[in-house]
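Usage

Read records sequentially. Each one opens with the input sequence:
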Amino acid sequence: MEIQLNMLGVIVSDMPAALRFYRLLGLDIPATEDEKPFVLHRMGSGVTLFFDTVFAKGYDPY
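and closes with the structure output:
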């Protein structure tokens, strides 16, 4: 059995800045997603990226 990557999560504190960066890398994420706390983006390869600010707000590693 081979392991397959299906989903990758990115925890961010600034959604507009994070999405702007990934757009520069070539992802076609609509600007209307910038103000959402959670964004899903399915790439052509079938892998889904999600961007999450909800977890980041409550996370304190110290």
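Summary fields computed downstream for this record:
- The radius of gyration is 13 Å.
- The chain has a mean pLDDT of 91.
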